[in-house]
Design brief:
By secondary structure, this protein is an alpha+beta fold. The protein folds into 2 domains: 10-102, Phosphorylase Kinase, domain 1 (2-Layer Sandwich); 109-174. It has 4 helices and 7 strands. Helix 3 (125-144) packs antiparallel against helix 4 (151-174). The longest helix is centred in the last third of the chain and has 24 residues, at 151-174. Residues 1-8 and 152-157 have low confidence and may be disordered.
Length: 178
């Protein structure tokens, strides 16, 4: 049985399409959006895995949420750093904005920590410090990017990312099972 703290992927029916993307799995959801693993299709059997972030259906008529979502997309599209996931495209389908991002293959760090806790193993200090350093490099880059037209969105994004960074650093440095 899976640990309740693990993100559970939910299979999506093969027939669900968002534009040229076929949804494969729901990776997670937050207060404003659902996140899916999808596949882009093209001629001659071309297929590429992507991640799609879709504004929740119940929020499409809430202008504040739509603008916040689209501001996030605009800011994310400007980021070009090895430690920041790339935004490939933004489009709307049936009035729902969709952010298409690169898919990074591999295990989530949370699943590695969960496995370590279950087995009684620990993540070496050098690995933890390297992860902290890389997260902070990406975060620093994102914060250095200024956009006066989107200062409200940037401010909200910075607060959220600083909070996330603090949680990761706390987990990496103080947890007895890392």
């Amino acid at each position: 049985m899976a640990d309740s703290s693990e993100i559970q992927a939910t299979q999506v029916a093969e027939s669900v399409l968002l534009g040229r993307y076929r949804l494969l799995l729901e990776l997670g959801q937050g207060g404003t959006a659902n996140v899916y693993l999808g596949a882009a299709s093209g001629p001659s059997g071309f297929s590429k895995l992507v991640v799609l972030k879709v504004l929740k259906r119940e929020l499409i008529n809430e202008e504040d949420f739509r603008q916040m979502f689209l501001n996030e997309a605009r800011l994310a599209a400007r980021l070009n750093h090895p430690n920041v996931v790339q935004t490939n495209e933004v489009f709307e389908i049936d009035g729902r904005p969709v952010i298409v991002m690169e898919y990074l293959e591999g295990q989530s760090f949370s699943s590695i920590l969960i496995r370590a806790r279950k087995t009684g193993a620990s993540v070496p200090l050098g690995v933890r410090l390297k992860i902290i350093s890389e997260v902070l490099n990406g975060l620093h880059y994102a914060h250095e990017l200024s956009d006066s037209a989107s200062s409200k969105a940037k401010s909200a994004s910075c607060r959220a990312s600083k909070s996330s960074a603090r949680r990761w650093i706390a987990a990496l440095t103080s947890s007895p099972w890392v």
